[in-house]
Amino acid sequence: MAKSTDGFFDRYGGKYVAEVLRRPLDELEEAFATYMSDKDFLQELDIIRRDYIGRETPLYYAPTATKLLGGAQIYIKMEGLANTGAHKINNAIGQCLLAKKMGKTRIIAETGAGQHGLATAAACAKLGLECTVYMGEIDVRRQQPNVAAMELYGAKVCAVTSGSRTLKDAVNEAMRDWAAHFDTTHYVLGSALGPAPFPDIVREFQSVIGKEVQQQCKDRGIQIGAMVACVGGGSNSIGFFSPFIDAPSPRLIGAEAGGIGPGVGENASRMTGNASREGIVQGYKSRFLIDEDGQSLPTRSISAGLDYMGIGPQLAALGASGRVEFTAIRDQEALEAVSFFAKHEGILFALESAHAGAAAMKIAREIPKDQAIIINMSGRGDKDVFITSPVFRPAKWLEFLHSEIERLESSKDIHDAKIMGENECLTK
Ligand SMILES: *Cc1c(COP(=O)(O)O)cnc(C)c1O
């Protein structure tokens, strides 16, 4: 099941959309098929991957972690070294280049925590495309560092004020915009989910991670026992697993957000939790954290990238068939993994990726010593300083924030600044 059949992965997937979205989806599917077998397109993409993203990313052997964990050889795929700090740029660049070939001049995207918006804004700046990012008003307020970066890249950030004013409302707004403007506009969806053909497209652009790992292991004679990745919507994991899915080994393990516990609203465990249901939401069939009426349930995770209520359809199917195992990692365990790899290997994991790190720490002794566990470090942790510092050193951090506020309030520049940035916009 390395790709979909008519948009389905067994019982999951599909294209459950309003009539107005059929045309842009069909057009996209056709263009994707054409360009993925076009030599010039693939060569251009390769050069951008090498010179702009910084591929290939290293496969790092972690000697101290291996010794301390006392089992398998621990390796880390350093996706976090990609330009913009995470794997999301692989998909953003791929889709933006495709859109450009299709003659589109404008890009829209949805974003929750802002990581996908940031990657898309950067890709648009690099490729000379106009960019609008829809983001729930609440997310805009709490994710200012990413909003600031998107504006620096020249994107317009639209605060969505409908519904719960978070990610799912941003998705709805992006879909509406796309339906109205698809002649000029491409919608860059951020994870391996949504209506077909997006799950296939996003997996293909992220499969560069897994293909590199396969080659790197072959070149160095590494025998893989298990591969571990964190799972939000599922793009880094499915790209990382993709070349290995049709074989019976290695073990493929997805780490979901276990949050603060197993109760409803305490986690985002779509595959391991008991609040999860099958449903059709935002254009595709999969497993979701929804109630019996199909209304979304609240989710929770310390990592902003893992708290989406749904999971990509291919992963849902691979979970059902047993090819991919899932495990829930609690906030506390992810924080411990951040400390562990920072201290012993000098590598700062993003909180999302630290869920994969924590899962590897748990299973290291289940894998023989002559085999490897490969952890996909989907992102680096610099972006998390506002979340990790209040946990690791709360008093000092609070003192720092107070002093920053004082410094800014007494600064003349702030009082002279315009209230609204020139790129800001609001939607209802
Ligand atoms: C967004 C994000 C994720 C989760 O998204 P997937 O689509 O599941 O990969 C994981 N890690 C990082 C660093 C992210 O920014």
In brief, what are we looking at here?
The protein has helices spanning 19-35, 39-53, 63-69, 88-101, 115-127, 137-142, 144-152, 167-181, 198-220, 235-241, 313-321, 331-345, 351-363, 385-392, 394-409, 412-416, and strands spanning 8-9, 12-13, 59-61, 73-77, 106-111, 130-136, 156-160, 185-188, 224-230, 251-259, 277-281, 284-288, 324-330, 372-376, 425-427. It has 428 residues and is an alpha/beta fold.
> Unreliable segments (pLDDT under 50, ≥5 consecutive)?
none
Q: What is the number of helical segments per DSSP (H or I, 4+ residues)?
A: 16
Distinct small molecules? pyridoxal-5'-phosphate
Let me know the number of strands.
Answer: 15
Radius of gyration, whole Å: 21 Å
What percent of residues adopt helix (DSSP H or I)?
A: 40-55%
**Mean pLDDT, rounded to whole units?**
95
How far apart lie the N and C ends? 41 Å
